[in-house]
Amino acid sequence: KLQGQSKLERRRRVESQASTELFLEGATGFYNQLLHELCTLFHLELPGRVNRARTGLLQDQYSFEWNFNTKQPQQSSCLYISQHCLVHLGDLARYRTQLNESHTFYHLAAQLVAY
Hints:
About 70% of the residues lie in helices and about 0% in strands.
């Protein structure tokens, strides 16, 4: 009976770990995409970010035009939300124990303070 319980506990732990990893990957994809869209839509040049349109590998597909009812945000607001995305990406990398990657995201976020 004890052996059956330990197998069940191991299976639950594995399922929980897989679920957590799936969540972290999904959240990382969300923040990467959000950061990319912010940079593309508002023409932000962030340190350490490769502009995919410049490399010729991928064209940015935004042709958004501001209409008279829409107020374009200030660059400081765009940098503020971008910094938060970078911090969240750093946290997510740290949760996945990718410490070098987390350090890079935190460093990039800290560089935005200077702007």
